[in-house]
Automatic annotation (TrEMBL):
Statement: the UniProt record of this protein carries the keyword Metal-binding: no
Molecular functions per Gene Ontology: pyridoxine 5'-phosphate synthase activity
Gene Ontology cellular component list: cytosol
Similarity section: Belongs to the PNP synthase family.
Gene this chain is encoded by: pdxJ
Subunit structure, as described in the record: Homooctamer; tetramer of dimers.
Superkingdom of origin organism: Bacteria
Catalytic residue list: H43, E70, H190
Function comment: Catalyzes the complicated ring closure reaction between the two acyclic compounds 1-deoxy-D-xylulose-5-phosphate (DXP) and 3-amino-2-oxopropyl phosphate (1-amino-acetone-3-phosphate or AAP) to form pyridoxine 5'-phosphate (PNP) and inorganic phosphate.
UniProt subcellular location: Cytoplasm
Source species taxonomy: Bacteria, Pseudomonadati, Bacteroidota, Cytophagia, Cytophagales
Pathway per the UniProt entry: Cofactor biosynthesis; pyridoxine 5'-phosphate biosynthesis; pyridoxine 5'-phosphate from D-erythrose 4-phosphate: step 5/5
Protein name: Pyridoxine 5'-phosphate synthase
Organism, scientific name: Spirosoma aureum
Length: 248
């Protein structure tokens, strides 16, 4: 079954708005785990506008599920990840001033750079995932540099889901099949939601993990964090009804 990693960037955004410690990021991470999340994702950015580097150190002390640190592997990020040694690092090619992640790596053009990064993290026992667009050549490139996993950048799927979900999913199915064929494991994330998650999970073969933040935290404003996490988990289980029908 596909695992749910909750991205808690937005909790840090709210906390930082007032400069204090409300909401308490560490407590929220513990609560996400208690409510059923199978992992915690953070994406420290160079300007620390949401997750701070100190948050990552603090979370490492308490997170007992899979800890996934995403980000652009600049020197400071590499040092932080190698110090914390999370279960997984996800390499994302963000520009420092990007509002949010908006593209995957060109794994062919940046092959040498990525190979060195994969080696440095794997030598510390950290699983490496490379963020890529749904493009079979980029999946092959990730495999060629030795990455353990890829994370498919799902924003284009989410954006086109409403118009034509079969067309929206098609490149993702092709990329997933390529990953399965090559034996590289598969994650996905960005703009996944209660609306589009179930179909994605049903259609994508071999999906190991989704990381979800923005929509999930927005839903929690209405449904509460515990209900919301349970609703997302139900979207990832083929038996039970998900989405709004799953509210208890
Ligand atoms: C890699 C990815 O798609 C997410 O981590 C996304 O970038 C979240 O980052 P923000 O919360 O800063 O938008
Ligand atoms: N890797 C994607 C992630 O962590 C969360 O993305 P989003 O749900 O905040 O768009």
């Amino acid at each position: 079954m596909t695992r749910l990693s909750v991205n808690i960037n937005k909790i840090a955004t709210i906390r930082n708005a007032r400069g204090g410690n409300n909401p308490n990021l560490v407590q929220v991470a513990l609560d996400c785990e208690r409510f059923g999340a199978q992992g915690i994702t953070v994406h420290p950015r160079p300007d620390e506008r949401h997750i701070r580097y100190q948050d990552v150190l603090d979370l490492k002390e308490v997170v007992t599920t899979e800890f996934n640190i995403e980000g652009n592997p600049d020197e400071r990020f590499i040092e932080l990840v190698k110090r914390v040694k999370p279960e997984q690092v996800t390499l994302v090619p963000d520009a420092p001033d990007a509002i949010t992640s908006n593209a995957g790596w060109d794994t062919i053009r940046h092959a040498d750079h990525l190979r060195r990064l994969v080696d440095t993290f794997q030598s510390d026992g950290i699983r490496v995932s490379i963020f890529v667009d749904a493009d079979e050549r980029m999946v092959e490139g990730a495999k060629a540099v030795g990455s353990d996993r890829i994370e498919l950048y799902t924003e284009p799927y989410a954006a086109h889901y409403v118009d034509n979900r079969d067309m929206a999913i098609a490149p993702f199915v092709r990329a997933a099949r390529k990953a399965n064929e090559l034996g590289i494991e598969l994650n996905a994330g960005h703009d996944l939601s209660l609306e589009n998650l179930r179909f994605f999970d049903e259609q994508i073969p071999g999906l190991k993990e989704v990381s979800i933040g923005h929509a999930l935290i927005c839903d929690a404003l209405y449904f509460g964090l515990e209900n919301t996490i349970q609703m997302y988990l139900r979207c990832l289980s083929s038996e039970a009804p998900g989405g709004l029908a799953g509210l208890h």
